[in-house]
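User: Please check token order:
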Amino acid sequence: MNGLTQFNRASDGLKPVLRGLAILCLNAVALVMVVPDANACSCTQPSSRSGVAEAGEYGAVLAGNVIALRLDEDKSLPSNSAHRRHLVHAKIQVLGAWKGPRQAEVTVETDYFSGMCGYPFKLGESYLIYASGGTEPYRVDVCSPTKPLAAATTEAKDLDERVAKRFQPPSN
């Protein structure tokens, strides 16, 4: 037997392995081409300032209780868009407001997915909310200093002293 015949017999065993590897590589390339772009949340460096110092940067600063949550598809995207964004609309019973709305209830929106910077509001919980925008629905994300109200008692007192007189909605 000559060397070429021995090589051909040895390479016959490699052909299925190479074919499988080629198929795997082609599938990997196809997958990369089909997967939509990811828009992960990325806040700039966390601010060393308190929320009180940042209050001027937001359209609304309020304390409130989440009384309803609704999941909606973002209607601002084109109907033929392959990427769908889901928004949570939180109805907030205003307990007090330092900036923005002077009404008993407001709606704020946030992305449903935390990877898209969505804030994890929970029904029945109270929050100190820093929201952007000038009208409803105001916008909240995890990059803002929004936090549970129980963790913001000192900040609420600072807001009372340094930002403006707090709006108190009429009690029912």
